[in-house]
Structure formats: C-alpha cells, structure tokens
Give the backbone structure.
Amino acid sequence: MHKIGILDSGIGGLTTCSYIFKVMPDVNVIYYADTLNAPYGSKTRAEVYAAVKTGVSYLFDAGCDVVVIACNTATTTCVKVLRKEFSKPVVGTEPELKNVSDDTEKPLYLATPLTYENIKNDSFGTADTTCLSKVIEESVFCEKIRREVAGALVSEKQNKVVLGCTHYLYLEKFLSCKTYDGGRGVANRTKTVFGANYRKTKRGGNLFFVFSGKKSFVKYLTAFSDFDDFNRNKT
Ligand code: DGL
C-alpha cells in the first residue's frame, strides 16, 4: 500500500492533500501539521529548515514512500538540502510562476514574508501578508473572515493572483479573478514518483493526522472537507 507523507506548518497542505487524493484516491496519507513551529513565514531560514527536517524524518521513519512538502515557504527555503539528506524522494511546492506573466499585466503574488525573500521577483505585485497564514489558520470556522480578507487583499481590478502559500488556497473560492497555485502540479509529480509501481487498491484513501504541537482534529477535518468540496467541483 502506498504511503505518502505530507508536511506543512498547518492546514495549508490539506489543499495539496485534496489534489493528491484526486489523482491517487487510494493512497494512504500521513499528514504532519507542524503546529509547534507555525507559522513558518515569519521565521528565519535556519528555524524553518530545522523544523522541516524534524518533520520529514518523522514521516520517513513512519514508513512513507515519499514526502511532499506542501508548503512554499519550506520548499523555497530548504528543499534542495533536504533532497541531499534523505535517500527517499522529497517533492516540493513551488509557487506557480510560469505562464502567469505576460506583457499586459502584472499579477499579484501572494506569499509569506520568507517566501518573498527567497524568491525575489519584481515582475509581480506583492501585498503585506505578515499574519495572513495565521488568520486563515484561525478562521476555518468563519467564512465571513476569509471573504473579508480576500476582498481586502485583492482589488476588483486585479485579474490574476498567484496563491504562493498553500494556506491562501482557502481564499480561492472568494476570488473572482484567475488564480494560480502549484497544487495540481505537485499531485501529478507525486504520482510520477510511483511510476509503474502505482497500484490501485480499494483499501487506501485514508488520512491520518500527526501534530507536532497543539492537536486540532475537528478543525483539520473541517478545513480538509471545506477545500475538498470546492476542489472536487473545479474543472
Ligand atoms: N502554508 C505554508 C506555505 O505554503 C506556510 C505558511 C506559514 O506557516 O506561514 O508557505
């Protein structure tokens, strides 16, 4: 049975998990929420690297065939080093930047402060996202807050938004402009890791949660179903 480890600081990576179940409905997922060290976006590179390495080690020790870092902040900070340190595959989540820019308009690029620092790309407009992932993490039970945040961040004139943090996918359903994110690409890449070894079985499709700090099973299941319902109806 295929076992995939997914890691994020919080609920953001559950959006990636939804994409993964869409292309591989029968894998088992161990979801590592690093609630002890969240949020990553306002930490130093050394702090994020240490936290993510602990999580990746945990997931491989738990028997995962592949670990997906479902976090743009962690990926842009340390995925290259981690790939050298572990013998099994580590898939990262990069902000979707290809095919977004053209001559006519500047997309709005939303990412955490550390991702902005790691990427440094001035062909995009940016916004102050200092506490954004924390606000999204805390508004799982309140759509009204997320709708207001989306409206305040993205002006009606904006045509393209890059969701460069997996937490920000929870704003997607409140945005009327075109959005870009790496979720589908990450899921497809994860499937190619199994290649011809990918086997369908009726016994998979389970999602297990591991929390490094505060445990919030109801909140995490709610967040997963919320995004998954929306994602399933997307083309
Ligand atoms: N969801 C993560 C990302 O994609 C991290 C958010 C955070 O912890 O600040 O960047």
Q: What stands out?
A: The pocket of D-glutamic acid is lined by residues 8-9, 12, 38-41, 71-73, 112, 115, 133, 165-167 (CB under 6 Å). The mean pLDDT is 93.
